[in-house]
Structures are given as C-alpha cells and as structure tokens.
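hiii so um. not sure if this is the right channel but i have a protein structure encoded as tokens and i wanna go backwards to a sequence. like what aa goes where. can anyone help
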C-alpha cells in the first residue's frame, strides 16, 4: 500500500469488496477506505444478475446505482404453458462497478 494511511483496506475490488467499499463510503464516510485491486480495473469482466427478491428492500440503495439493465417481470415457459412472474430482474456489470467505485471521495483505489 506504499505506506499510505487507511482506516480499512479491502483486498480485491470484485463484487464483494466493491459493495463493501460503497457501503462503508455511504454509512461511515468518516473512514478512509482503500481498495487494493490486483487487476487494471475493479469489477473485472463480469455480468451479475439478480431478482428484486434477492436483495432486501433496506439494501436496495446499495445495488441500485450499479444496475445497467432491468426487467420489471419475466416470462417462464414450460412445455404446456407459460407464466409471467411479476418479479423484477436486474443486471450489474463489472464496468459499472468500476465507474461507481470512483465516485466517493473517501474511497481510494490502488491497482497492483
Ligand atoms: C460465469 C459466472 C457467472 C456468475 N453469475 C452470477 C450472477 O448472475 N449473480 C451472482 O450473484 N453471482 C454470479 N456469479 C458469482 C459471482 O461472480 C461471485 O459470487 C462474485 O463475483 C464473488 O465476488 P468476489 O468479490 O468474492 O470475487 P470476484 O468478483 O472474483 O473479485 C475478486 C477480486 O479480487 C482481485 N484479487 C484477486 N487476488 C488479489 C490479490 N492478491 N490482491 C488484490 N486483488 C486481488 C481480483 O482481481 C478480483 O477483482 C457468477 C460467477 C461466474 C464465474
């Protein structure tokens, strides 16, 4: 970490490390958070998808800025019929995670 100060260092700027850094920046802006990412960008080359019901309503604010595509419902087809399920489906990309991580001034990103 080149001798720089940080209150919390997060090793790995993937989904887990990135979300942790964003949550700390929002909830504990008094802390200086450093994300140490081995790759040239955080997030990598990923698409992560989830249903609305996978994330607690109280935590939706954390993932909302990361969503690049959203469908309000989805259709499930079977051999003898189909149903439309009124549950939202969302996709997050590594590129968006990398961009959002650059916003909070309390987050410092170091690439290895
Ligand atoms: C093909 C595929 C599809 C998936 N689809 C979904 C999905 O749709 N929905 C879902 O919820 N999950 C999905 N997953 C699972 C999801 O990708 C993982 O659960 C999630 O990425 C785990 O997050 P992570 O931060 O632990 O790991 P990662 O996202 O892999 O991040 C780890 C980070 O640490 C960095 N790193 C590694 N070593 C070091 C080091 N020594 N020093 C510094 N940095 C380091 C890496 O470069 C990387 O950026 C999928 C996984 C795969 C493989």
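sure thing!! here u go:
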């Amino acid at each position: 970490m080149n001798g720089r100060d940080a209150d919390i260092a997060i090793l790995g700027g993937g989904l887990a490390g990135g979300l942790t850094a964003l949550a700390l920046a929002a909830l504990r802006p008094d802390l200086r958070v450093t994300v140490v990412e081995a790759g040239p960008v955080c997030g990598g080359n990923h698409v992560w998808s989830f249903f609305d019901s996978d994330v607690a309503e109280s935590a939706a604010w954390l993932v909302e800025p990361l969503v690049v595509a959203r469908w309000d419902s989805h259709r499930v087809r079977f051999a003898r019929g189909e149903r439309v399920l009124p549950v939202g489906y969302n996709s997050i990309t590594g590129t968006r995670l990398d961009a959002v991580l650059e916003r909070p001034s309390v987050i410092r990103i170091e690439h290895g």
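oh and The two ends are 9 Å apart (CA to CA).
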